[in-house]
Specification:
The chain has 179 residues and is an alpha/beta fold. The protein is built from seven helices and five strands, in the order βαβαβαβααβαα.
């Protein structure tokens, strides 16, 4: 398939994005019948439904590690997953955070009110396999149908993080809890 928009728009009230998104979608569909995907930030369900007019697959980029009330908490995932399911049904995706803000986006530490030092249980501020599995569990149990892991490129910069991702993927695949 084709990924045509990443985390846009950032403001659910900004409607200028709709026609360009629809134009991109139409352009791809004129060339192929393959699916089109868009990712978004957390937004109201009505906004997510509107996005579905310009995509076939919808993915939520929600990265709650380390947890911060300013950005969001892992316990917000069930509500997000229900909204994603309502908007996109079987075409809903949840991006599992596999990167560290401390390594890849240090400029976001202060604005998101993350702790100045990475949590001791993390891998340089990246979520552990257990935390990634918990994100997956919360999303899948509340209706999201597909998972992706973000961000492989950043994860390579942290020794051992690719192993954490592999462990998480294996646990998800092998667990009867995930179907």
């Amino acid at each position: 398939g084709y990924f045509i928009a990443d985390e846009l728009p950032q403001d659910a009230g900004d409607t200028r994005w709709y026609q360009p998104l629809q134009d991109r979608y139409d352009q791809v569909k004129r060339l192929t019948s393959r699916p089109v995907m868009v990712s978004t930030y957390r937004n109201p369900v009505d906004f997510l439904k509107t996005l579905m007019h310009g995509t076939d697959q919808l993915m939520m980029d929600y990265y709650p590690y380390p947890e911060s009330p300013k950005y969001g908490l892992i316990n917000d995932i069930p509500a997000i997953a229900r909204d994603m399911h309502e908007a996109a049904g079987n075409n809903s995706w949840f991006a599992i955070q596999a990167f560290s803000y401390y390594v890849s986006e240090p400029e976001n530490i202060e604005p998101f009110h993350f702790p100045k030092v990475p949590p001791a249980v993390s891998n340089q501020g990246a979520p552990t396999a257990n935390y990634m599995v918990e994100m997956a569990r919360l999303a899948l149990h509340e209706g999201v149908h597909n998972l992706a892991f973000f961000h492989y490129g950043y994860a390579k910069a942290i020794p051992g993080q690719l192993t954490e991702i592999q462990i998480a993927v294996r646990q998800i695949r092998e667990s009867s809890e995930f179907g």
